[in-house]
Design brief:
- The complex is a heterodimer of chains A (344) and B (307).
- By secondary structure, chain A is mainly alpha-helical.
- Chain A contains 14 helices and no strands.
- In chain A, helix 6 crosses helix 9 and helix 11 packs antiparallel against helix 14.
- Chain A is globular, with a radius of gyration of 24 Å.
- Chain B has 307 residues and is mainly alpha-helical.
- Chain B has one domain: MetI-like fold, CATH 1.10.3720.
- Helices cover 72% and strands 0% of the residues of chain B.
- Chain B contains 13 helices and no strands.
- Chain B is elongated and about 75 Å long.
- Chain B starts with a helix and ends in an 8-residue tail after the last helix.
- Classes of the chains: A mainly alpha (344), B mainly alpha (307).
- Chains A and B meet through helix 2, helix 7, helix 8, helix 9 and helix 12 of A and helix 6, helix 7, helix 9, helix 11 and helix 12 of B.
Chain lengths: 344, 307
């Protein structure tokens, strides 16, 4: 029975309580770190084989219209080490990766790792701001929806969340640009249509904020829908519980029952589900950066596929996956701190 | 009717009895589904889109969507001739929408079938087999679950090349892990039930246990999950096409949006070009989500208190 998934199993929880959950946090951390390391290793291996073993010769995929003669293809393969035997290529790939070397981008001949470092900050700024805003708003919204379930507020905002959830986030970005930035229609271009700075030579904080307003609104709305729906259903699961009746019987006010008792317990499953949805956050960053031409990692990946520039794609895929694995680990460790029952 | 099925007559074979029971369950499920207004709304929207997709050749001429034989002018405003205006090569947007519904729905449905087959198989196996095989499958599922799906889909689509078949394959390959986890946890709980122990004692082999006892029990869950996966698959198709990874020879809502974006319909205010495909995507995805949620309620009584 210990093989049961921890999320919906009562038995391991009981076992954890019996064996004194608090002491085993160290072991829980070790287990989670090992799991993440294994995931990372899997991604590193997958990253190598995706580009070399799958049908579609790299030289042919990359060189569409550029490498026409057999000599040019041989030359190309030699430059990128593709003429070596596969195990040899794998060893070289691992060695380079350990030194932070992800090869050179084909179009600009710039090191991929340097490009990724340069493009990291806009993405972190955009995704970080939107995630914080969306989490706060989403949790607040979901909490209020569930607490007043069936009310007009609940119905209207839940429908809005469902529509936002069904919407491609980049399309929402396009609509916002057309409404507020294009200069067509009544709102006459309040915001810029894209980019991060008006003048890249001397960026100011205010200018950056102005440029990031629409992208942040777009991503916040997209993430918000997800988080509020999760929080709403987590809190609804708690509503029938006995401890709430007890809290009310003690004479606590409605808000105290909600904030101090129900919401705290509902936040636990919300944390896990938000961590599981991190891939969705990455997807949002890629498409919204594309629509608003924000020079971040997402746009870099899209530039990689437009080329196509396999080394650029490989690098961004690796960084995106590593980022998600790391964020997942952090969420899991936090969860272990918050809820001793999962430390099995 | 229920009286007839609870008192078996002598002439009824076991197979007939099983089918009668299944029909009964379906009828009960449908009666319960009808209680969900949102689910019915979703079903209504979906039926409209499916009819439009199937009747596309009757509703819009196929020459309308050919770039070379397009009837209208460049980016014409909506008028009585072209209700939703024309695109940058003079094709009526309404005709593109109608033909695009076919590709969007086709990709969504077939990709979901691939995803469901992989997810159900992996989930059943990793839940049923206790040794290292099951554990390995579980690990692989977890690994695929943490890989962000869009970067993986982009990489796969780039490496495989741009075609309708490949985009279906890519979406199918990237969307199965969530289903596998769900089916695995169901399999684990069903495996421990007494009637399976009885089957084992009576000498039922593995394939009999999985095929005749576990699979029929997880099927309703698979079915409810399928509709939710179609929603995700259609959204993914739209996003991949928007990023330029769709089949360039076919019209889908995603490729329409990609084209609208690249010819600058957003900044020139040609709303009739990029609003309708987006709204269609929302309506179809929303309808699958609503149906999926209602089905989840029907097959999982634990959720009934929620909505």
């Amino acid at each position: 029975m210990t093989t049961l998934a921890t999320a919906d199993a009562a038995v391991p929880e009981a076992e954890a309580r019996r064996s004194g959950g608090r002491r085993s946090y160290g072991r829980y951390v070790l287990g989670k770190v090992a799991g993440s390391a294994a995931s990372l290793a899997f991604v590193v291996v997958l990253n190598f084989f995706l580009f070399r073993v799958l049908p579609g010769d790299p030289a042919r995929t990359l060189g569409r219209g550029r490498l026409n003669t057999p000599e040019a293809i041989a030359e190309f393969n030699k430059t990128y080490g593709l003429d070596q035997p596969l195990p040899q290529q794998f060893v070289t790939y691992l060695g380079n990766l350990l030194h932070g070397d992800m090869g050179l981008a084909i179009s600009t001949r710039a090191p991929v790792s340097q490009l990724i470092l340069d493009r990291m900050w806009p993405t972190l700024l955009l995704v970080g701001t939107s995630t914080v805003l969306a989490t706060l708003l989403g949790v607040w919204l979901g909490m209020n929806q569930a607490w007043k379930r069936g009310s007009f507020f609940d119905k209207s905002t839940t429908w809005t969340s469902l529509v936002l959830y069904s919407m491609p986030e980049w399309w929402l970005g396009m609509v916002l640009i057309a409404l507020l930035a294009s200069g067509v229609g009544p709102f006459l271009g309040w915001f810029p249509t894209g980019g991060l700075h008006t003048d890249a030579a001397n960026p100011t904080v205010l200018d950056t904020v102005w440029h990031l307003t629409l992208p942040v609104i777009t991503l916040t709305l997209a993430y918000l829908a997800d988080y509020s729906l999760i929080m709403r259903s987590s809190l609804l699961d708690e509503l029938g519980e006995d401890y709430l009746t007890t809290a009310r019987a003690k004479g606590l006010r409605d808000l105290q029952v909600r904030n101090r008792h129900a919401a705290r317990n509902a936040l636990l499953p919300t944390t896990t589900l938000i961590a599981l949805n991190l891939g969705f956050v990455v997807a949002g960053a890629i498409t919204v950066e594309t629509v608003f031409s924000i020079p971040g990692l997402g746009l870099l990946a899209v530039e990689g596929l437009r080329g196509p520039d396999l080394w650029l794609l490989q690098g961004t895929f690796l960084v995106a996956s590593a980022g998600v694995i790391l964020a997942n680990l952090v969420a899991n460790l936090l969860y272990g701190l918050l809820d001793p029952r999962v430390r099995v | 009717m229920s009286a007839a099925s609870t008192t078996p007559r002598a002439a009824v074979s076991a197979r007939q009895l099983a089918w009668r029971r299944r029909r009964e369950t379906l009828r009960r499920g449908w009666a319960e589904f009808r209680q969900h207004r949102a689910g019915l709304v979703g079903l209504g929207i979906l039926v409209v889109f499916v009819v439009v997709a199937l009747a596309a050749p009757l509703l819009a001429s196929s020459t309308d969507i050919s770039v070379t034989r397009a009837p209208g002018g460049v980016l014409e405003h909506p008028s009585s001739t072209y209700w939703l205006g024309t695109d940058d090569s003079g094709r009526p947007v309404l005709s593109l929408l109608i033909w695009g519904a076919r590709i969007s729905l086709l990709v969504g449905l077939t990709a979901t079938v691939i995803s469901m087959v992989i997810g159900t198989l992996v989930g059943l196996m990793s839940g049923y087999f206790e040794g290292w095989g099951g554990a390995l499958l579980f690990r692989v599922t977890e690994w695929f679950l943490v890989i962000p799906f869009l970067p993986l889909a982009i990489v796969l689509a780039t490496v495989l090349g741009r075609s309708l078949f490949n985009i279906i394959l890519v979406i199918g390959i990237t969307s199965w892990p969530a289903t596998a986890l769900l089916i695995r946890s169901q399999t684990l709980s069903i495996k421990e039930r007494p009637y399976l122990e009885r089957a084992r004692v009576l000498g039922a082999g593995r394939s009999h246990q999985i095929g005749r006892h576990i699979l029929p029990n997880v099927m309703p869950m698979v079915f409810a999950n399928t509709t939710l996966t179609v929603a995700i698959a259609i959204l993914t198709e739209t996003t991949l096409s928007f990023l330029g990874l769709g089949d360039p020879t076919r019209v889908s809502w995603g490729t329409m949006l990609d084209q609208a974006y690249s010819v600058g319909a957003i900044t020139t205010g040609s709303w009739w070009f990029f609003m309708p495909p987006g709204i269609c995507v929302i309506l179809v995805v929303l309808s699958f989500t609503l149906i999926g949620q209602a089905l989840e309620d029907v097959v999982n009584p634990r959720l009934k208190a929620r909505r």
